[in-house]
Every structure is written in structure tokens, then in C-alpha cells.
Design brief:
The complex is a heterodimer of chains A (822) and B (64). Chain A is α+β, with helices and mostly antiparallel strands and 822 residues long. Among the domains of chain A are: 70 residues, no CATH class; 96 residues, Alpha-Beta Plaits (2-Layer Sandwich), CATH 3.30.70; 87 residues, Calcium-transporting ATPase, cytoplasmic transduction domain A, CATH 2.70.150; 147 residues, HAD superfamily/HAD-like (Rossmann fold). In chain A, the strands form 6 sheets. In chain A, strands 17-29-28-27-18-25-26 form a 7-stranded mixed β-sheet, sandwiched between helices. A 6-stranded antiparallel β-sheet of chain A has the order 9-8-10-16-11-14, with no helix packed on it. A 6-stranded antiparallel β-sheet of chain A has the order 19-24-23-22-21-20. Chain B has 2 helices and no strands. Chain B starts with a helix and ends in a 24-residue tail after the last helix. In chain B, 8% of the residues are buried. Classes of the chains: A alpha+beta (822), B mainly alpha (64). The interface between A and B is large, with 59 and 38 residues.
């Protein structure tokens, strides 16, 4: 009951709206609160602004559950909740079907079931707390555990007391998007990889402590003198521990080095494997013969630091790489199929060619099908990136993965998922990834020279000393090898990449993908997509052409009142206008518009033909630049309302900055209207190609790459996924569909295009730091190797030098941690 | 100094136990989510000002 006051205060006041200043950010999602919107709510004793009813509902739920602390604890804004198409409970009811639920639940006993859900839009660790707290206190839940890294919720509950659909609905109400967690072999493999890396790291760490302890005793013995018996004992024990560590923890270095060597490639792992292997061999030999020096501590420490560096790098990379590209997962799990004269809810996997399916408004079409009955419009942004739907009638083809926006449809399935257009798109994404030109990693290119150099010098040293003093030759050549141990060199790249990725994450850019930062630093071309990338991708009212007396505000209020009854995406543009008037007999005409009776006559709003039926005097729409809808009262045309996809405010500045930095900026768009060219002129982009199919976009990028250019692509939408995966480096703007995000190397979470140039700058800086690291590591080796070759470097000096040089490299890399923009 | 013959094996035994325990902890999934656990120790288990009252259950009706 205590939320009632909060609710009334949150109701939009009808006459005198308190207009929030334009720069106010939504307390929940951080997006700008639209002017005139008033969705405030009291959280933690203070009135907080909200940008939309969705955010308000979520915030209210959090507040009334006493979880306001969440807002103090979180480290990132939440994602703006999507407007549910219908009641969330109804949408998830299909998961109560035991057959469908079997894919992601496990029944421990009759009344104890564990379900795994994949959660979309989790932004920080505080989200896990919020979800665990809310779910854990539900009646019938035994335990709820969220894994942030896997974005996964494991919930153990009693299906008799709490249906699965209710769990989905609860998570949805918190503003996260739940989906069944489907185990995939890739995901499993990554998980196993993570654990085995951690195991190796743990063994190397503990081994390092042990061997280090014995090494101190041995070094002390060297200085103070030590009986040969005990020296032998310590050496033997060190040998045992170090051998275990080398066998258990260093194995991947040997495997990678050997695999690449067989293919004739010299990679960074080769000098690493050589250093570890030879230093271990030499020390083992020294232990057996009771002569020379042992380097077990160096071997183990080197292994540990390298594993640590790689583990951290891998963790940053894997953090957000979990939603694998799987177009099929966007399709609904349950469909309504006509069987024996009845509509039955069945799992989608049961669909067969010739089945009749019912797709309600707002649902995703489950398979490629031919319309049997019903008029509607389908949004095909999956394939063409455009947000305005295509009107369809009986006999038309509709495609799996597109969204039915207006009215219920009956369609006859024409083929399985494998034959669908969506599956073809997925295949082209996979193919594009395979085609992507591989830019050799900087580290590997340095490594090949390094290996050759070190082997040459060691060989020369051994040869020279075998002439001068044969008994010293082995030990001196070994000390050359140990001192040239490429520890700093091997750490140079991962340390820098990890710290750059951390800085970018704090600035709202998620970094994924192997060489993305290196490729981006070398980019020569920056290619933008139009809809949803340079523009916001949502329609806004940008012009009202008055055709009769009256005020703009009145007409817009009337239009808003009528548009409330429409499912068409256009109606969202009217969402922040307060509707006016009392209306009767409001009817929505699919593919045409809305009509209704007001106090002073009958009104129609919609397409040109629709309004002209009543008002023949309606003039032609003012221009072709915008999307126009007409408003008329009886036979009087009242207004043309022009809608426009708004350019992102920062777009011009970003393109300007990129051009000044020497990048070639291009615009590729699937939109064939004049808008693309106009937009390009406005933004001073010289290279424009409009009306491109995804294949043509790919062909263009491929041509550029063949000319030796390094292409960076900025896009959104699934239709861009193939071209994003083909480009050398790619950005996806969030708000973009999940699928496109997984294809991009960088995901801009806040939707701020300035992140593109910031990331580029960071990438350049990162490259510079890596080069500095290499310069230092190589410089150190160049100075130290001659000394070692002359026999002047004792082992302890070599060990200290090695550690210091690694520390310096790490410290230098940490300079990348600063935020890209202040 | 003879005690080394006893002490070193004991040290190694402890080390082996530590490794065994750590590997067990990793395999049982305790290190699967390092970010969350690091944050979690700072968060309250029970939200302040809401001791035992069950959460309000009538909220999703207002979602749309």
C-alpha cells in the first residue's frame, strides 16, 4: 500500500507539466529526460527524474522492495527497459510448458527445479545483487545465484508454488531481459578454458612461493657458504616442484609454440617455451651433476607472471563475449500452430512445412511463411535496417526473424529454419568472419625477429667460449638465454591491451575481439551506416504543415490521442505529447491509420490515401525528405505531420574529428531515398553509397581491403552483422540488437558516437605504448646480452634485472588506464 | 640442519594440500565470477529498512 503516494506523484499532471531542464539525466538509465516529460519518483528520500514510464516502473519496483541501496552501489547506469509489447506475464507463459522448459531446467526432485536463464542488459555487479535479492525473497524460491561473467541466473524453485513464467516476468519487471540459457558447445568450451587457466595460474603461484623459498636459501648459501649436502637437497626439492609447475602450468606455451612451428610460423610463445624449457633443462642438468647454477625460481616466476598477464587479458576479452551470435535464438520458443481445427501452443522445433501458424501483433515471425489471412505490416530491420514496416496482405511472403507490428496474421510455413533467409544471414556472417584479412599481431612479428636473434647470439657465444674456455661454454650460453628471457617482451602486449580495454570500459565502450585495438590503430577508412548509427533510429516529429486554422499544439494533441490506438512504429513519435479530447468509436485500420469521433467531428489520421477518402482536397505531401502522415476532420484536411529520423547531435563533430585525424570517412546505407545523400552533404561526407544490399556493402569493404586499406565499420542492426564481421575493426552502437553487438569488436553502450573517435585515439595510444614496451624490452636485452655473453652477469643480477624490466613494462601500460575523454 | 629432512617434506605436504584445495575450489565454481564476489562483500545481505516484510507482489501490472 505504501507505494500509492509514490504513484500519484508520478502521474503526469494534466495541465501544468513541470518541465525538467533539458540536460536532466534519467536516474535509472542515464538517458536524457525528454522535455516536458514528468516521470519523477521518490528514491532514498529524494525526488528523482525518470525518462520514461518503463524506467519509472522498474525504479518504483526497486524502491518499494526496499532495494534503493542498489542505486548507491551500482557502478554503471542500467539499460533502458524496452517497452513490452503485451503484458510480460502472458509473453512468458509458454515456458510453463514442461517440454519447452526441459531445454534449460533440471529437476532435482519433484518440488525442486533448477532453471538457468540468460539475462540481457546486466551492467554491473550491483545488478546481480538486485536480482538475487528480489528473486531470493519470492515465495517458492530456494536459491537464486547470478553469474555476472556469464550473465546467467541459476534459480532453484518449487514449480508448484511458483510457475516458471512468473520468474521470467519478475526478472523482466526489474528491467532485465530473461531468455532461456541454452548450453552451447562454444560457451562450454570457453568456460572450461577459463577454469583450466585458473588452475594453471593457481599451481604456478603456489609453486612459485615454494621454489622462491628454496631459492632464497640457495642464494644465501652462495653468499655465506653452505654444505654441499644441503645445497643438493634444496636443488633436488626445487627440481621436483619446478618440474611439476612446468608440466602442469607451462604446457600451453609449448603446445602453441610447437603447433605454430610446424606450420612455419614463429610466435611469441616460441621464445617463451625456449626460455622455460632450456632454463629448466640446464638447471636439471646442474642438479644431476652437482655443478653450475640452478634457475628454477626464474622458470617458475616467469611462468606465473606470464599466465597472470594472459589470464587478465583473456578475462577482459571474455567478459562480454558471451552472447554468441545465434540468429535462431531471436525466434520465439513457442508458436501457435493449427492442429485438428485448434490453435495449440507448441515448441517452435515442431514446426513443419505446410503448418499454419498464428502470429500476434508485436511477435516475431517464427519461420519463413506465406500469409494465408490477415493484413498487417512487418518490420524487417533484421534484413534492411529500416525501422518503418512493410505492409503485407494475404499471399505475401514474410520472413523468420521479422516482427509483426500491426495485427494478427495467419501464415503457412514454407520451410525449415535451415532454409530460411535468417539462417542464410547467419551463414554469411560466419563466412565473413572466415574471410576477414588477418593482420599479423605486432607481438608475433617482433617475436620472429627476436627468436632468430637470440638463437644466433647464443650460438655465437657458445662457439666463442668453446674456443676460449670449453668448461665455461655451457653455463655462459645458458645465462645468455636466461637473461634474454622475453618476459617483458611477452608481457608488453597483454598488459597494454588489458589496461586500454579497462579504460574504455569505464568510458562506456566494451572491447571484444582479438586484435581489434591493433587493427583500429591502423585504420585508414571509417565507414558509417546511416539508420540507427548516425541517426537515433527513432522517428520524431520534425515539421507540422498546417492546412487549416487552429494551433499546432491542438492538432498534435488530437493526433496523439488517436495514435494511442495504433501499433505502428510511427505512433511512438507521439508518445511524449499529452493527448487531448474525448474520443468515441476509435478504430485502427491496419496499413492505413486511425479514425475516431471527437466532440467536433470525425477525425482520421494516417496515410495519404486513407485521409483522401474523406478529404479529397488534401494536397500532396510537402516534400520527399520526411515521412508524412495526414490529419483530417470530416472533409477538411487539417495538417501534414512530418516525421524524421533524428541525426545524433554529436555526429557532425565526430566525423569532423575523424577527417582531421586523416581517416577517410564514408557513408554506406541500405536506404535508397534521398535522405542518405542529404545527410552526407550536411555532414560533409564525400563518399556516399545509398540503397545498398548487405552483400553490396560487403563487396565494397572487401574491395577496400584488397587495396590494402584497413577498414573500420560503425553500424547497428542485424543487417549490418555480416559487414561488421568482415571489417578489420567494427563498432556497434547500443540500442542496436544484441546480435549485431556480438559481431562488433567494440560496443558503444551509451549510444554516444564520440566514443568512436575516443576509442580510435585510445587504440593509437595503446599501439604507442606497446611499441615503447617493445623498445624497452629489446633495449634491455641488447644491453644485457653482451654482458652475459662476456660472462659478467651473475644469476641473481639476471633475475633482478628480469623482474624490474617486467615491472617497468607493466607500469608503462598502466598509463593507458586514464579515461579517454574528460 | 638435519631437521631440513623433516621440515621440507612437511612444507611440500602443506603445499600439496593447498594446491589440492584450490583446485577443488576452482572446479566447484567458486572462482567463476570474480567481479561479483569482489563487490558482494561490500553489499548488505538484507536491504536496510525492510527487515522481514515480503516484497510487494503487485507491480508488474503497471509495466506497460
Amino acid at each position: 500500500m505504501d507505494q500509492l503516494p509514490a504513484m500519484t506523484s508520478a502521474m503526469p499532471p494534466s495541465n501544468d507539466p513541470v518541465i525538467a531542464p533539458a540536460s536532466t539525466a534519467c536516474y535509472h538509465c542515464g538517458e536524457q529526460v525528454p522535455a516536458g516529460a514528468d516521470f519523477t519518483i521518490t528514491i532514498g528520500g529524494e525526488l528523482r527524474p525518470m525518462c520514461c514510464p518503463g524506467c519509472r516502473a522498474v525504479a518504483e519496483l526497486i524502491a518499494t522492495n526496499g532495494l534503493e541501496n542498489f542505486y548507491q552501489q551500482r557502478t554503471a547506469y542500467n539499460q533502458r527497459p524496452q517497452k513490452p509489447a503485451d503484458s510480460p506475464g502472458g509473453r512468458y507463459r509458454v515456458y510453463d510448458d514442461p517440454e519447452l522448459a526441459a531445454g534449460f531446467t533440471r529437476a532435482d526432485t519433484q518440488d525442486k527445479v533448477t532453471a538457468s536463464l540468460l539475462l540481457g542488459d546486466m551492467t554491473c555487479a550491483a545488478c546481480t545483487w538486485l536480482i538475487e535479492q528480489t528473486m531470493g525473497r519470492l515465495e517458492g524460491v530456494y536459491s537464486a545465484r547470478v553469474n555476472l561473467q556469464q550473465q546467467r541466473l541459476d534459480i532453484c524453485f518449487d514449480p508448484a508454488r511458483l510457475p516458471l513464467s512468473e520468474i521470467f516476468a519478475r526478472v523482466d519487471a526489474l528491467g532485465y531481459r530473461p531468455r532461456p540459457f541454452q548450453a552451447s558447445s562454444q560457451r562450454q568450451q570457453m568456460h572450461d578454458e577459463y577454469r583450466s587457466q585458473l588452475r594453471r595460474l593457481a599451481v604456478a603461484g603456489l609453486g612459485m612461493m615454494q621454489v622462491g623459498m628454496f631459492a632464497i636459501a640457495l642464494h644465501a648459501g652462495d653468499i655465506q657458504g653452505m654444505e654441499g649436502e644441503y645445497q643438493g637437497l634444496l636443488r633436488w626439492v626445487s627440481l621436483a616442484v619446478a618440474s611439476f609447475v612446468v608440466l602442469f602450468s607451462s604446457r600451453p606455451f609449448f603446445i602453441t609454440a610447437w603447433r605454430h612451428l610446424r606450420q612455419g610460423a614463429l610466435v611469441m610463445d616460441l621464445p617463451v617455451a625456449l626460455a622455460i624449457g632450456l632454463a629448466w633443462l640446464a638447471s636439471a642438468w646442474a642438479t644431476f651433476t652437482g655443478s653450475g647454477q640452478v634457475y628454477f625460481d626464474s622458470v617458475v616466476m616467469f611462468t606465473f607472471f606470464l599466465l597472470l598477464g594472459r589470464f587478465l587479458e583473456q578475462r577482459v576479452r571474455q567478459r562480454h563475449a558471451l552472447s554468441w551470435f545465434n540468429a535462431e535464438s531471436t525466434l520465439p520458443d513457442a508458436v501457435l500452430i493449427r492442429r485438428q481445427g485448434q490453435w495449440l501452443t507448441r515448441p517452435r522445433t515442431e514446426l513443419q512445412k505446410g503448418d499454419l501458424v498464428l502470429v500476434k501483433a508485436g511477435e516475431t515471425i517464427p519461420a519463413d511463411a506465406v500469409l494465408a489471412a490477415g493484413n498487417s505490416a512487418v518490420r524487417e530491420d533484421t534484413f534492411n535496417g529500416e525501422h518503418l514496416p512493410r505492409t503485407v496482405a494475404a499471399g505475401d511472403m514474410v520472413y523468420a526473424g521479422t516482427v509483426n507490428v500491426e495485427a494478427a496474421l495467419q501464415a503457412r510455413v514454407v520451410g525449415s529454419y535451415r532454409d530460411s533467409r535468417l539462417a542464410a544471414l547467419q551463414r554469411s556472417v560466419e563466412q565473413a568472419q572466415g574471410e576477414k584479412p588477418r593482420l599479423a599481431k605486432l607481438a608475433d612479428r617482433v617475436a620472429s625477429w627476436f627468436v632468430a636473434g637470440v638463437l644466433l647470439i647464443t650460438g655465437a657465444t657458445a662457439l666463442a667460449w668453446s674456443q676460449i674456455a670449453p668448461q665455461e661454454a655451457l653455463w655462459i650460453s645458458l645465462s645468455v638465454l636466461v637473461i634474454s628471457c622475453p618476459c617483458a617482451l611477452a608481457l608488453a602486449t597483454p598488459a597494454a591491451l588489458t589496461s586500454a580495454a579497462n579504460a574504455l570500459r569505464r568510458a562506456g565502450v566494451i572491447v571484444r575481439g582479438e586484435n581489434a585495438l591493433e587493427s583500429l590503430a591502423r585504420a585508414s577508412h571509417l565507414i558509417f551506416d546511416k539508420t540507427g548509427t548516425l541517426t537515433t533510429g527513432t522517428l520524431r516529429i520534425s515539421a507540422v504543415d498546417m492546412l487549416a486554422g487552429g494551433t499546432r499544439q491542438d492538432y498534435l494533441a488530437i493526433a496523439a490521442a488517436l495514435q494511442q490506438h495504433s501499433n505502428h512504429p510511427v505512433s511512438r513519435a507521439f508518445g511524449d505529447i499529452t493527448p487531448a479530447g474525448t474520443w468515441e468509436q476509435v478504430a485502427y485500420r491496419v496499413g492505413a491509420g486511425v479514425e475516431g469521433t471527437g466532440t467536433d467531428g470525425r477525425y482520421r489520421i494516417g496515410s495519404e490515401q486513407f485521409c483522401r477518402q474523406w478529404a479529397p482536397a488534401l494536397p500532396a505531401p510537402p516534400d520527399a525528405r520526411r515521412y508524412w502522415i495526414a490529419l483530417c476532420r470530416d472533409t477538411t484536411p487539417l495538417a501534414w505531420i512530418g516525421l524524421d529520423d533524428q541525426l545524433r547531435p554529436e555526429a557532425a563533430a565526430v566525423i569532423d574529428a575523424a577527417r582531421r585525424a586523416g581517416l577517410m570517412v564514408e557513408l554506406l546505407t541500405g536506404d535508397s531515398s534521398a535522405q542518405g545523400a542529404l545527410l552526407a552533404r550536411e555532414l560533409n561526407i564525400e563518399q556516399v553509397k545509398t540503397g545498398l544490399q548487405p552483400e553490396e556493402k560487403m563487396a565494397h569493404v572487401r574491395t577496400l581491403q584488397q587495396q590494402g586499406n584497413v577498414v573500420t565499420m560503425v553500424g547497428d542492426g542485424l543487417n549490418d552483422a555480416p559487414v561488421l564481421s568482415l571489417a578489420d575493426a567494427s563498432f556497434a552502437v547500443a540500442g542496436a540488437t544484441d546480435l549485431a553487438r556480438t559481431q562488433a569488436n567494440f560496443v558503444i553502450v551509451g549510444g554516444d558516437l564520440r566514443c568512436v573517435t575516443d576509442t580510435w585515439r585510445k587504440a593509437r595510444q595503446c599501439r604507442r605504448i606497446i611499441l615503447e614496451n617493445f623498445a624497452w624490452a629489446l633495449g634491455y636485452n641488447t644491453c644485457a646480452i653482451p654482458l652475459a655473453a662476456l660472462g659478467h652477469v651473475p644469476p641473481w643480477a639476471a633475475a633482478i634485472g628480469m623482474s624490474l624490466s617486467s615491472l617497468l613494462v607493466v607500469a608503462n601500460s598502466l598509463r593507458l588506464n586514464s579515461k579517454p575523454r574528460n | 640442519m638435519e631437521s631440513l629432512y623433516l621440515l621440507i617434506p612437511i612444507a611440500l605436504l602443506f603445499c600439496a594440500i593447498a594446491i589440492k584445495l584450490l583446485l577443488w575450489a576452482i572446479d566447484s565454481g567458486q572462482y567463476d565470477d570474480l567481479d561479483k564476489e569482489a563487490w558482494k562483500i561490500l553489499a548488505d545481505d538484507e536491504p536496510a529498512g525492510n527487515d522481514s516484510a515480503p516484497p510487494q507482489q503487485d507491480n508488474e501490472g503497471r509495466q506497460q
